What we know:
The protein has helices at residues 20-27, 42-50, 61-66, 112-125, 136-141, 153-159, 171-179, 199-218, 220-227, 235-243, 251-266; strands spanning 9-14, 35-40, 56-60, 71-81, 88-92, 103-107, 130-134, 148-152, 167-170, 183-191, 279-280, 284-285. The protein is α/β, with parallel strands linked by helices. The chain has a five-stranded mixed beta sheet with strand order 2-1-3-10-4. Strands 8-5-9 form a three-stranded antiparallel beta sheet, with helices on both faces. Strands 6-7 form a two-stranded parallel ribbon. Helix 1 crosses helix 8. It is globular and about 55 Å long.
Amino acid sequence: MGRDPSVGLILGKIGFVNVLPIYYPLEAGTVPHPFTVVSGTPAQLNELAAKGELDVSAVSSVEYARHPERYLLVPDLSISSRGPVGSVLLLSRIPILELAGRPVLTSAKSHSSALLLRVLFNLHLGIMPDFQTGHPSRALERGEAPLAMLLIGDDALRFRQHPDYPHRWDLGEVWHAWTGLPFVFGVWVIQRSALELPDAILRDGVESLLKAKEWGCAHLDEICQQAMSYHLLSYDDLKHYYRGLGFHLNEIEKEGLRAFFQCLTEIGEIPHVPPVEFYSPMARVA
Length: 286
């Protein structure tokens, strides 16, 4: 027996300021939608999605790469950058080229960013630090400053100008300089198991997300006003930040996604480059 369609769709939401252009129009009621929204970090949403507890969700691009049999991509929706992203930063107290064999604390909140950092060190620089997973922002707040650390999301915005860390990498910027391609940090996926639901429900959900994206990108002034409540950046800095983010998944983003997947095979994280498959209201797979 299929699930009662009256329960709607369960939508995973990254609890960071970077996705406000997508989720604010939904949660404010500007764009009608069929969702119940569940918030979490990227890693938490990956876990919930892997358990099948979210019908539709933002997940890290790595989660899709590891389990393409579970998901279909929502068309033309991502969290990406074609250059500096602003909220995925490596901060170091010593020059980055001197980090070979030295400890680098990576955030437990994100999978894609941590693996992107490994790719950049291993394949781009040809060196490998001693990566350790933890909570860099908590370490800073306790006065236990790591030698180097990867910060993502709101933590990266909060600590990006930390005076003890003169050496900085914006991972989106470094990837783009190396490959010439955008980097896709996150994607929205539909559980293949959710295809048992009436097609109209899924179609309405996807249309709501795309309408929310269009509204959010067209009303960045209002998005910035909402983001001011996070007390992370000034209004002008928020506007600059959002202009550096991409929310589309066009051909150039797909190329960047495949390039990252290829890098993941080269460092042994996935066995092969997965197909990039999209939900389609008619054919279901495109």
